[in-house]
TrEMBL record:
Domain Replication protein A 70 kDa DNA-binding subunit B/D first OB fold: 14-116
CDD domains for the chain: RPA1_DBD_A (cd04474)
Membership in a protein family: Belongs to the replication factor A protein 1 family.
Protein name: Replication protein a 70 kDa dna-binding subunit b
Matches recorded under PANTHER family: OS03G0429900 PROTEIN (PTHR47165)
Keyword Zinc recorded: yes
Length: 215
């Protein structure tokens, strides 16, 4: 295994990773890690876990671990930590599922190596992409954006399956109130975490929020 210094010299930004090559190294910061989710379809069944990662340029990408790789890397990808991913694979985004990158996502193979970094990457470029709530309110219906807001309250989880959802109310320094709806795994897991934090009124960053205007 190469040293951290050697890996850092080999690192590519996500935007420069060759789409049809698995011979590359990237360094990413873990924004989110989902719980282990079971799946079943006509061909097979198993479990998967999704990750949202960001590099030093501020480029976000989703990664998915399936079955044996969920178990293999269960002690890795802690949120707010940085990791090297070596010899992964870029797959085209499935248009039937949402993803934080428009074109590709990371898949793991038997040759993939993960190494935790002793030094975190800078998230300055990532942070610069966030809007304030008052700026977000000027966006048109369907726009996807990142936003910073203050948590006010968290409503109960409702619905079942893919319809599980939870509404949270956020505000800004002007005391404008806006609702954000969390769906599925976000509603259950992240919503539960926010429920525990609501009395502290934390400042939160939300990634890939979609504007929905109801008339």
């Amino acid at each position: 295994m190469a040293t951290e210094v050697e890996l850092s010299k080999q690192c590519l930004p996500i935007s420069k990773v060759p789409k049809y090559s698995s011979d590359w190294v990237i360094k990413v910061f873990v924004v989110r890690r989902s719980k282990v989710i079971p799946y079943k379809n006509q061909r097979n069944e198993g479990v998967f876990k999704t990750l949202i990662l960001v590099d030093e340029e501020g480029t976000k990408i989703q990664a998915t671990l399936f079955n044996k790789h969920v178990e293999k890397w269960k002690d890795f990808f802690e949120p707010s930590r940085s990791y090297f991913i070596i010899n992964g694979r870029l797959d085209r985004v499935n248009p039937n599922y949402s993803s934080v990158h428009k074109e590709v996502e990371i898949a793991f193979t038997d040759n993939t190596i993960i190494k935790e970094s002793k030094t975190d990457i800078s998230t300055q470029e990532f942070s610069n992409g966030f809007l304030f709530l008052e700026e977000a309110e000027k966006l048109t219906d369907g726009t996807i954006f990142d936003v910073v807001a203050i948590l006010v309250t968290v409503k109960p989880l409702i619905g079942e399956g893919r319809s599980r959802r939870r509404e949270i109310i956020v505000t800004n320094e002007r005391s404008d109130l806006t609702s954000i709806t969390l769906w599925g795994d976000f509603a259950e897991n992240d919503g539960e975490l926010l429920e525990k934090m609501k009395y502290d009124k934390p400042i939160l960053g939300f990634c890939d929020v979609r504007v929905s205007i109801y008339k």
